[in-house]
Amino acid sequence: MTEKYNPQVIEQKWQQRWEADGLNRAKIDPSREKYYAMTMYPYPSGDLHMGHWYAMAPSDVRARWMRMKGYNVLFPMGFDSFGLPAENAAIKRGIHPKEWTYANIKRMRGQLRSMGAMFDWEREAITSDPSYYKWSQWFFLKLYDMGLAYKTMAPVDFCPTCNTTLAREQVWGEDRHCERCGTPVIKKDLNQWFFKITKYADELLDFSRLNWPERVRAMQKNWIGRSEGAEVVFKTEKGGHDIPIFTTRPDTLWGATFMVLAPEHPLVAELTTPEQKAAVETYVAQATRQTEIDRLATDKEKTGVFIGAYAINPVNNERIPIWIADYVLMTYGTGAIMAVPSGDERDFEFAQKYGLPIPVVVAPKDWDGQPFTEAYTEPGTLVNSGPFNGYATIGKYSLEDWTPELAAQYGLPADLTPETEGRRAVTRWLEQQGIGKFAVTYRLRDWLISRQRYWGCPIPMISCPSCGIVPVPYAELPVELPEDVQFMPTGESPLKFHEGFRHVKCPQCGSENAERETDTMDTFMCSSWYQYAYMDPHWKDGQPLSPDDIPFNPTEGDYWLPVDQYTGGIEHATMHLLYTRFFTKAMHDMGVVPFDEPMNALFNQGIILGEDREKMSKSRGNVVAPDDLVQAYGADTVRGYLMFGFRWDQGGPWDSKGILGVQRFLERVWELVTGDAGKRGDEEATEAQLRELRRKQHQAIRRVTQDIESFSFNTMVAGLMEYTNALAAIRGAAPGIVTHSAWGDAIRTLVLLLAPGFPHIAEEMWAKLGQPYSVHQQSWPTWDEELAKEDVVEIAVQVNGKVRDKIEVPVEIGEAEAKTQALATEGVQRHLEGKTPAKVIYVPGRLVNIVVK
User: Fold this and answer.
1) Which of 347, 388, 798, 800 is in the most buried spot, having the most CB atoms within 10 Å?
2) Contact, 512 vs 462, CB < 8 A?
3) What is the residue range of 463's domain?
4) For the chain, what is the largest distance between any 2 Cα atoms, rounded to a whole number of angstroms?
5) What is the pLDDT of residues 386-442, one digit of tens each?
6) Relative orientation angle of helices 759-768 and 635-644, to the nearest 10 degrees
7) Cross-strand partners of 150
8) Residue 147 domain flag
9) Which of 524, 549, 576 is at the close of a domain?
């Protein structure tokens, strides 16, 4: 009698064996090609949720498959363990963040092990370990030495509930709320530390060496927001002030009839006349209370106030009024715009409301000389533009994108050059006249890393009354977090009130009145370099550091780096995935690594929703706990359903019944493999049966291989199910075949194909087949295209394009024979009704279409 499949016993047994044998420990082997696979590490919240499983289990399949293909695979795991939830737990529950965090890590480590993933736990990196964050501090000092870290007063987004500043990327939604707690964000001026990520803006726009999803590239490109144009200086009428503006349309300068400053612009107070002061101050107060989203809303009525001053348009010396309006932001360009109402929808609406001139400067091909009734933003011919009248201007299009078709559409020349196209010609003229220059601006802002929290990496800087800001010497790293702190919801870091931490001797002059920086770093700092920490998480423990160090074991790094395949959620596109690219580019400039991109390839998985099609959350009561499912069905079944039930890049709603289908599949596999174990011999089987067996075997190898290669894990599992069903059908039709050596080969192939996705049951069945340990160290099977070919193929038979029958024919059938068989089918004869076909069309291997008039 076949032994019953018992996943709970099998899985625990093999997990213990793999751990004892060090099966998943990655070691340098110069004779083998390396493969460094990473999936995003979790925050130790205390429970591994279904989203973690969905991200990690298919990643593990790919890593296991690469190992069976002969690669030397590194697949590490760690914990992103600094962060606000630990501090909130300290305030709410009276539990120290360290105690809360490490208890959660212990629990989640056990949950991760139950998954059966091939994580190399000897390389576990925990970002809140001093052995880890001393290197985070080392990076800070190196960036400071390079001029890439600086401190300045700046308006920042502040969450009054979390009592901390937020990076731009952590402010979500049209209502600008905190991503963590949902509270509306306010503005606050604080002295903050920033990283100069903007220095790398152009490099970050180069994706040429990256196999990353187009969607992520587009999101990063849009976030960086590179715009080419011109910077033009407008002088104020009364002199004393130059107001630079950035415009992407210098060709429309002759149409600028007013200037608009952002309400926060530093010149507003200086230029406002006494008569306008009260109105301006009232408007500024109203505008600064609004969110940027509200201010930029296209359906919002445009408002503004004239400040009483005038500027001089440098291209025609015309006097234009200066206004303030909330649709101009201080955070983009220079905080001032030239308003060209005939060429910009917002400016047009504003000018109409306040009775400002709207001269036409870019005319469409069918313009009748009348005033515009709406702004025109497309290509056209320059008019009322001084020396550039008659020039073609193509607006948003580049010369590379300008085609004869577009030229015909807009009635403009097709053969434009930088000398004859308006926007480019005007820019050169501005430079020649000394009133402007070519310029590039970016939407990207420098990375704000200061956080008013305790549970984060301390910033290794000191403020001295004599020396100013002084870095902590490298040899004194790490600056460790004190544990005896008081947690109060004050909005300031508890470190600020810890006298022993705060007061320190200046390392430069020896002053006793120096103070440590009491803010800690954004946790994205820690995850920007964690792929390097996996080289050796305890690298240089107990040793003093120096600026000439390398932040990872160079022997390991030379072999494993960079990451070959990274997987994780697309929600990190403009945060973590951008920051880690910035870090690697800075490391390249430091001379630490010979490459400047961190991960060669990236795949973004989707999201598992609750059965109600909503995001899983405790408040909705739709959370599915992986631990309960593992206990009930086993890890292999849970892994299988997460692969089979969803397209990995899309995700979808959980189906509690779906997991039962995978459970039944594994039970069928178990019976098929172990029920025939031990039977050997060469009893006769028909040649046709053996040919069919080999065909199904090689078709399965081909399909599963190609599906794993393309991350199509749902169809991979479907292919395994079809192969299992095919083997069962062959055995049912010819029971004697199980004694043939070809059957044993087909069964071993099934187990090998199962191994990456279902590692425990595959290992157990491999052992029961008497094969050498471990199945995960065996070579991946290969297919023979000739053996995978079908002998016969089913083709459709159509009459006037509609399918009327189907026939099975030999693959190599000739055209004449295929037509003869098609014409003889019952379905065709019934629809011909004695008529003679006018034409018979044969598409080899697919269809015969009979045309009847």
Assistant:
1) 347
2) no
3) 134-199+447-524
4) 110
5) 999 999 999 889 999 999 999 999 999 999 999 999 999 999 999 999 999 999 999
6) 120
7) 194
8) yes
9) 524
Tell me the C-alpha distance between 690 and 677, whole Å: 19
Position 630 scores a pLDDT of 96
- Given a cut of 50, is residue 566 above it in pLDDT? yes
Residue 830 lies in a domain: yes
DSSP string for residues in 399-432: TTT--HHHHHHHT--S---TTTBHHHHHHHHHHH
Q: Give yes or no: residues 806 and 779 share one domain.
A: no
Question: What mean pLDDT do residues 444-471 have?
Answer: 95
Band of the pLDDT at 681, cuts 50, 70, 90?
A: very low
- Residues 798 and 775 placed together within one structural domain of the fold: no
Same domain, 345 and 451: no
- Whether 485 is covered by a domain: the verdict is yes
**CA angle at 387 for the pair 384 and 390, rounded to the nearest 5°:** 65
| Residue 695 CA to its chain's centroid (Å) | 40
The single-letter code of the amino acid at 479 is V
Average pLDDT over residues 212-238: 95
Which domain-ending residue is among 460, 489, 524?
524
Q: Within 10 A of 358 (CB to CB), how many other CB atoms are there?
A: 19
In order of 435, 439, 450, the CA distances from 430 in angstroms are 5, 12, 41
Residue 539: pLDDT band with limits 50, 70, 90: very high
* Residue 236 DSSP label: E
The reply to whether 763 and 698 lie within a common domain is: yes
Residue with tokens 């390079």: 146
Q: Is the pLDDT of residue 535 over 90?
A: yes
CA angle centred on 662, ends 657 and 666, rounded to 5°? 145
Rounded CA gap, 817 and 840, in Å?
12
- Residue 57: enclosing H or E segment and its boundaries? helix 50-68
- CATH assignment of the domain containing 778: 1.10.730.10
Cβ–Cβ < 8 Å for 528, 576: yes
471 touches 144 (CB < 8 A)? yes
Position 768 in a domain = yes
Kindly report the length of the chain.
853
- Residue 124 is classified by DSSP as E
Tell me if residue 809 falls in helix, strand or coil: strand
Among residues 458, 489, 447, 455, which one has the least CA distance to residue 162?
489
The two tokens of residue 748 are 């071993």
* 809 and 842 together in one domain: yes
Looking at every residue in the chain, the average pLDDT score rounds to: 93
Query: Given a cut of 90, is residue 253 above it in pLDDT?
Result: yes
Q: Helix or strand or coil: residue 172?
A: strand
Q: Same domain, yes or no, for 289 and 356?
A: yes
- The residue among 578, 607, 335 whose CA lies nearest residue 444 is 578
Q: What is the mean pLDDT of residues 833-845?
A: 87
SS3 149: strand
Burial class (CB in 10 A: 0-12, 13-18, 19+), 687: exposed
β-partners of residue 569 are 605
Q: Which long-range contacts (CB under 8 A, 24 or more apart) does 390-395 make?
A: 391/251, 391/420, 391/421, 391/422, 391/425, 392/416, 392/420, 392/421, 392/422, 393/251, 393/362, 393/421, 393/422, 393/423, 394/421, 394/422, 394/423, 395/249, 395/362, 395/423
Residues 334 and 434 grouped into a single domain: yes
Backbone torsion region of residue 390, taken as left when φ is above 0, otherwise alpha when ψ lies between -120 and 50, otherwise beta: left
Q: Which of 209-218, 564-573, 674-683, 734-743 has the lowest mean pLDDT?
A: 674-683
Alpha-carbon distance of 687 to 679, in angstroms, equals: 20
Share of the chain above pLDDT 70, in %: 98
Going by their DSSP bridges, the two strands 34-39 and 563-569 should be labelled as parallel
Select from 452, 420, 406, 461 the least CA-distant residue to 145: 461
Of the candidates 509, 459, 452, the residue with the CA atom closest to the CA atom of residue 144 = 459
